[in-house]
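TA notes, week 10

Several of you asked for a full example with nothing omitted. So below is the full record: structure tokens for the whole chain, then the designed sequence directly under it. When grading your own attempts, check the secondary structure regions first.
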């Protein structure tokens, strides 16, 4: 298949909408990561997303809207707490799981009777949804099992030849996927941490972090979100997170350095005087979120065999970075 490369000018967005209306799959930028979009109501179009990604059929897709008013068109019962979250954090990187209406096909919801809904902040994404006049189902635009794409180049590397078009937009400003939440009575439950932090959500209602966010769940555990049970973002290298201060990290590296090892560090200060190759993912949690997926792709390109990574903060946006890195590391953490 020939993949068209589209810009973000009006004519290009018209073309993206035309392809989507015809049941095609188009990759679009969002503020979190690029998404692989199709008409959420069109079963065949949605099936093409699963094929292009190689995604397991029971892993549901997030449905993207351009206006809060569309919420009740997708869900028959939107609780007050959901409206309060939407008012506080939309348009933005927050996905809410709600009961779904029948017109959302079961392929879109991975066979569940709920649907994840998000209104992205990215103006290009919203302009495309508005032109379409239907909501867009979109998972991250990577091949299943590889890091989420935060630049046009990442999407091109994974999807060229597999989908009808890619919109070449800005690099994703957040860099990690949206916060996914569901509601237990009047509590918010975080199923996947993101830029909207548990601390911020607790300003709306009591917030709990689901066990699957930081723990490896057993094969037959009952999960609240199917995405939790899949191996994610696994680079080819064997990654270990070193949970320590800078000095202990340096000491550990000195003692454990082997051939083919690379370091994933906050800044070059972390590895001054160490005879090891390294890449930096930034000092602040926001920076780390923005750069993490690019770093994981780079480690693969450089052929790293083992990686020792400095541990992100476990609060605020840092929790999202830690959650993604934990999965890349297969939950291997050395606490010093
Ligand atoms: O930021 C994002 O959320 C990006 C952009 C494109 O919007 N999308 C994204 O989609 O990350 P995806 O498919 O890569 O991740 C969606 C996650 C999966 O872990 C999935 O299991 C979960 O959300 N999810 C979706 N619908 C769900 C539902 N009805 N119930 C429970 N979990 C759901
Ligand atoms: Mg994904």
């Amino acid at each position: 298949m020939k993949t068209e490369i589209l810009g973000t000018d009006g004519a290009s967005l018209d073309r993206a909408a035309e392809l989507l209306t015809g049941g095609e799959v188009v990759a679009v930028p969002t503020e979190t990561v690029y998404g692989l979009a199709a008409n959420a109501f069109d079963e065949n179009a949605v099936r093409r997303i699963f094929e292009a990604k190689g995604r397991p059929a029971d892993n549901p897709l997030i449905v993207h809207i351009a206006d809060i008013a569309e919420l009740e068109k997708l869900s028959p019962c939107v609780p007050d707490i959901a409206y309060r979250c939407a008012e506080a954090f939309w348009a933005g990187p927050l996905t809410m799981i709600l009961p779904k209406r029948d017109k959302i096909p079961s392929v879109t919801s991975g066979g569940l009777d709920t649907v994840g809904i998000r209104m992205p902040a990215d103006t290009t994404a919203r302009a495309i949804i508005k032109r379409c006049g239907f909501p867009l189902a979109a998972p991250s635009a990577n091949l299943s099992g590889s890091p989420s794409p935060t630049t046009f180049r990442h999407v091109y590397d994974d999807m060229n030849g597999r989908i009808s078009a890619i919109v070449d937009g800005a690099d994703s400003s957040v860099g990690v996927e949206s916060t996914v939440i569901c509601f237990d009575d009047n509590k918010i439950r975080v199923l996947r941490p993101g830029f909207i932090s548990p601390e911020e959500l607790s300003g709306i209602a009591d917030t709990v972090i689901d066990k699957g966010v930081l723990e490896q769940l057993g094969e037959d555990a009952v999960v609240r979100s199917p995405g939790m049970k899949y191996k994610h973002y696994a680079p080819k290298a064997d990654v270990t997170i070193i949970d320590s201060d800078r000095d202990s990290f340096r000491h550990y590296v000195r003692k454990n350095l082997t051939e083919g090892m690379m370091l994933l560090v906050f800044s070059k200060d972390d590895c001054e005087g160490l005879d090891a190759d390294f890449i930096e993912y930034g000092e602040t949690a926001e920076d780390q979120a923005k750069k993490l997926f690019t770093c994981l792709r780079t480690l693969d390109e450089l052929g790293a065999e083992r990686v020792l990574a400095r541990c992100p903060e476990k609060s605020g946006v840092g929790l999202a970075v830690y959650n993604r890195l934990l999965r890349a590391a297969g939950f291997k953490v050395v606490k010093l």
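The domain at 238-335 is CATH 3.40.50.11030 (Rossmann fold). Use that as a sanity check on your answer.
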